[in-house]
Amino acid sequence: MGVLTPEELARYLKDKRDILVMAGSLCERIDFDGKKLVDYVAAIAHKLKAPVAATGNTMAGLKEKGLQAKKMWVAEVMDYMRHPWKEPLISKRPRLLVFVGYHRDLLEMLVSMLKDVDTLALGPGHVASATRSVPDLSIESWKDFLEDLAEKL
Amino acid sequence: MKKKHIINVGELKVDLSELVPDIRGIEDMTETIVKEDFPESRLRQFDIKLKPFAGFQDLAEWDRVLLERYQPLYLSWQTTCDHCGKGPCDLRRAKGLCGLDLDTYQAKLSLLDACKGAIAQVSRSRDLLNYALKLFGGEKGISLGKSIGYPSNNIAVLTGMNPRNLSELNRALSYAESQILELQASAELAQRDASDLEKKTLHVGSLIFLAMEVEELIKICCFGFSSVGDLELTDYANYPEATTWVGLGSVDTSKPVITFVGNNFLAAWSAANYLRENNLEDKIEVCGIGAVGHDLVRFYPKGRVLTSTAKAVKAIRSGIPDVIVASECCLNLDILDDARRVGSKVIATSSKLNLDLPERTGDSIGDIIDELLRGLPGAIILEPAKAGELAVKLAQKLERKDSYLLTREQIKEYAAECDECDSCFKVCPNNLPISRALRMAQDDFSGLVEIYEKCFFCKRCERACPKGIPIIDLILGASQEEIKQDKFLMRAGRGPLSHLEFRDLTFGLVLGGNGPGIVCLLGCGSYPGSDNELAEMAKEFLERNCVVMTAGCAAADVARHFDEGEGKFIFEQYPSFVGLRGLTNCGGCSAISHILAGVFKLGQLGGGVPTRANYVQSVDYAFQRTPIVVILWGASSDEMYAQAAGFARAGVRVVVGPSGNSFRRYLVGNKYDLEKWWIFDGITGDKREIDPSPPHLIFPVETKEEAIVMTMKLFLMSCDLRESRLSTLDNYTETHEQFFGELPDDWHFYTRSSLELPVKKRMRFLSLLKKEHGWEIDRTMIKRVRHRDGRMMSFDKYVESYGVQQGRYSTMLPRFIIRKGKE
Description:
The structure holds two protein chains of two kinds. By secondary structure, chain A is an alpha/beta fold. Chain A is built from seven helices and eight strands; from the N terminus they run αβαββαβαβαβαββα. The two termini of chain A are 21 Å apart. At the A-B interface, helix 5 and helix 6 of A face strand 3, strand 24, helix 29 and helix 30 of B.
């Protein structure tokens, strides 16, 4: 499928249920001139009322934000997705996984091997194998995209 | 009809033909192994099956057990198969035309990756063995010295041999060559079973360790590499002394500089001999990058290690080497192009490098030098002695500039060309804000310096830049001060692990000491993030009372830690013995084989498990009782992929990071799948439920902090004695809270008694068990427990049905349950 604008993406997300946000290690490391990627992730997850699987060191940055979040490991989540769902962070097997803060190479691999679930790659960079993805963006336009998306949700 | 070969062991008559799958041709060897290694009691207790020159099917009983618990998890973007003329087939949508499904395709690629890695290693071992046979002859003895005992466990477990000379090493290596050929051929044929392919991959993993051990034994026994083999135990702590300089800043560039790159040390060995014979040691700087660097300093103490293979670009483009002597590398490097940019000359010593250079082995050294001075960029010299001598003579004649780094004005000029399209950011594996740093560079180089500290110089940014800005040169030019400061002290490799150290470890770890476990820090150096991550991990593990070992390129990165308080580098701070709070550098990449050899040694010493032709029992014992984790940091070669398989098959847990995208396949356990976690009581034969430990076999992590926490978790074993469990659980929960701000969600799975809860947190943990998990607690006593399946049960019933009795013999395989009446 393809690339969406923030408006289209907001509409797409509003129709979805059983969303799990996967927040990777770049959430803590990418800094948009003072505001971190993790802040945008928190805002988006909050609007979506979706739980957050905080992988890497992201949990530290999410702890105080009042979200339903838990420290998890990306490989464990991938493993859980191929078995009957038992992870208490979300009561049902997710129907949409929203990935933010993963290196593009890793993300391409993760979404390529997932079955029976929709995937959304929120950057950085376009991920062709995801069900939906942000386009290739510069740092500045990526920040604008995330801000727009959070506002329109 | 099968012919019987009866021998007497004590009062027992043993038919050797029943012990091995096919005794033809190995009758004498089998008899020797049984008579020397297997006392009567062991033969009576267990259903012993010896597997000399084991094929993958011979060891499949063990692989099956592992793969049932730790299922392969594939991470790959290669989902379309084009291996035959019928395709390509998109396997995400449906099976291929041949019936291949996505997982089986990934398993096939996994086997091919491992074979590629093993072939590179075996080919290197073969080259060295052939050269050693020419130089020393087949009767040249192989012995690691009086302190070692069982010098070649990686060979012994697979073949049944403990080679005593080069001819016997030749036999062992020939076995590995034929096995790998067969396994690779089987990967190319049609396959329907992912599990079968994964078992083969595990076997390739064991074979690569055999080949590495062959290489390492030749290095020590024929070429004088440093080794503790003949030292007294009291001398280990400071052997070799921490006097080896590492880093770009350690080189005196006012002298001619020869730099060796790659995996073959022979030219460096010849150059070192030539320098010594001609009293030139103080007149020429000799350095190495990657594996050859770590080899160099084991026979030439004045040598320096510049950096890891993955960061070779950094060293070459900074203009340090006058002459680069390149052999085959574990990674693809664009050596010739980078060397041309800075006017360095290249001597290639291997035809495997595929460099477009003339082959000049037969020409006189004088003629070759003349041509190189006239502008020839390099030459291929396949005779190591000649390559070594040529390198020295050429280095003395070359006249080069003082510095090849860009000036401040040049950097600003180039940076002004950037229009911030962010093509560099989009391709950077570390998502570094390169264009922001270029924008800043008009006033301030701090952005570029920050990039220097986190970059591993893959050059993707340069290739992507539509303006052709030489971004690497800008980063290096802006970081001249950092390059000068890039100077650390390391211990050169010490070779094998001694018998006595392992005896100590058996008590310090396996039999209930208070160390969490053994951590081995390995990798190729290609990790995005701080250069200091490995050093910081080493420090953390040492402070937490672990045994820390390292080898290969990772050792140079570990050396980067400097303690301001003590004024010492990490290798000066910690003793070089294999014990709690010891930091050991085994040597170059082939020296990694000592680590796995040590795991088999623990089985020998702790459980009296013979190694020769006895792989399965050796690893069954070690897996349950050896808290050992290998961290592959920035591992990017196929050789590392095969090594991970070899470690995992022997029960050594492997953490791969950062970013976790280096490997195609991981072996992951699922803590929620209760049926996967069991063990046989080795005495009664009862199949018992255990806690989910060790939780994974090969596991990816994203960050250094995840690596530390996961390592602590992977130390957990169902057979832990009380002190070990206490220490491991303490470290696991503490690091998890420290780095992620909360307790792990599964710590209660590993709670077997209030006495095993960390002392300082005991009351808090008991309170949490009560509040969050529904356990009944009376002050410090656990009365009733909620089992993982939700049932409430008395504590006594829980202890009776969950886990194994401490110190009791247990096994994963029915044939190692002690036969009734023979206990």
